[in-house]
Amino acid sequence: xxxxxxxxxxxxxxxxxxxxxxxxxxxxxxxxxxxxxxxxxxxxxxxxxxxxxxxxxxxxxxxxxxxxxxxxxxxxxxxxxxxxxxxxxxxxxxxxxxxxxxxxxxxxxxxxxxxxxxxxxxxxxxxxxxxxxxxxxxxxxxxxxxxxxxxxxxxxxxxxxxxxxxxxxxxxxxxxxxxxxxxxxxxxxxxxxxxxxxxxxxxxxxxxxxxxxxxxxxxxxxxxxxxxxxxxxxxxxxxxxxxxxxxxxxxxxxxxxxxxxxxxxxxxxxxxxxxxxxxxxxxxxxxxxxxxxxxxxxxxxxxxxxxxxxxxxxxxxxxxxxxxxxxxxxxxxxxxxxxxxxxxxxxxxxxxxxxxxxxxxxxxxxxxxxxxxxxxxxxxxxxxxxxxxxxxxxxxxxxxxxxxxxxxxxxxxxxxxxxxxxxxxxxxxxxxxx
Length: 434
Ligand code: SAM
Ligand code: SF4
What we know:
Layout: E1 2-7, H1 11-26, E2 30-31, E3 40-45, H2 50-69, E4 73-78, H3 79-84, H4 87-91, E5 97-99, H5 107-115, E6 121-123, E7 146-149, E8 151-152, H6 163-167, E9 171-172, H7 175-187, E10 192-196, H8 209-217, E11 224-228, H9 237-245, E12 252-254, H10 262-268, H11 274-282, E13 292-299, H12 306-319, E14 323-328, H13 346-369, E15 375-380, E16 390-395, E17 400-404, E18 416-424, E19 429-433
Parallel strand pairs: 1-2, 1-3, 3-4, 4-5, 5-6, 7-10, 10-11, 12-13, 13-14, 17-19
Antiparallel strand pairs: 8-9, 15-16, 15-18, 16-17, 18-19
Helix pairs in contact: 8-9, 12-13
Domain MTTase N-terminal: 1-116
Keywords: 4Fe-4S, Cytoplasm, Iron, Iron-sulfur, Metal-binding, S-adenosyl-L-methionine, Transferase, tRNA processing
Catalytic activity: N(6)-dimethylallyladenosine(37) in tRNA + (sulfur carrier)-SH + AH2 + 2 S-adenosyl-L-methionine = 2-methylsulfanyl-N(6)-dimethylallyladenosine(37) in tRNA + (sulfur carrier)-H + 5'-deoxyadenosine + L-methionine + A + S-adenosyl-L-homocysteine + 2 H(+)
């Protein structure tokens, strides 16, 4: 059977897709690049905002029509599957099976049951060993960086967030397992890993997250370690020290702030004030100048006043984030923030988002301009010779780099090369191969 997995959402979903792909390949299924060529289509879904959910339902609509034309099995997994469970069959009766986020290893059984003619097959059980997925099964996408799970789930309870529902509470992978996986990846040629969890810095798999970073950095042959995502309240002095003083830890920190107003942060149940967030950044000391800082913002949270929003704009400028992701608040089913009055008109929310993003673009351009003329190591992310003569690469600070090396020249995929930065735009750096 030929299968295709379509993934939406975050790195955890990307990595789940790699695990699911491995499970099907082990069973002798063949991966294909497009849904049109597949006999089994698996939708690996995201439900963090309403827009992500719309995309899934629109793809399901398309697949319903396709199913009328030819034999096709449709499965739904990921956060929407865990959130909606059997309700998905009501809304889209052509779905053959629903697989929860904590039941990945049940996929072959569900497919076999559906193949045997059983309808509306489902497993959304909370298997407590889901995070102990065998790395030998994972079938990685062809990327320069390898994703590695260290924790699953989240023990925070931000009032807007669906993740604790869709991913359950925290489970940590023992550090020995993490190290064994990283060593195996380096043997297979990877030079960069990204440690994954909804909240990596609450890691408790036999050591702290700071310890884990140090241990992983001792793996010979590994060049860069990244991690995502961190919660400000679990960001310790020790972690800050390791981040700024361990050469293999890439100089990049994503620390979601969400809002610059204490009143809004309280209503979000973020567990910190703006002052405490800034204090955490202060832990980085002088090392902070070497790091690129990134964050997330939610704009238009219920009850956000002009004053609250101006406070966010003020912190944005004060910290001068190198980059940020910003979203309009999206009400999610079953979350506590649904009980808050949300009467701010959408055009006001959109206007605020636009202002924030415009300002961020200026800050990002300024951050990029600081790289002009510098020689920096970047990892090549494009395969093979390139007729246009430029390659995509990534700096340690997670900047996208368009690297010129001359037409027809082949650069070593996945390797670090030295580049001299010649151009800074708000969205990328242009550079020449040194
Ligand atoms: N665990 C991480 C954290 O605490 O920041 C990431 C969670 S989520 C996958 C990534 C971002 O989506 C959040 O930081 C938040 O800014 C945004 N987000 C989550 N729920 C949202 C909602 N209901 N509406 C709009 N944005 C949301
Ligand atoms: Fe969601 Fe908050 Fe947990 Fe992040 S820390 S996943 S925003 S509940």
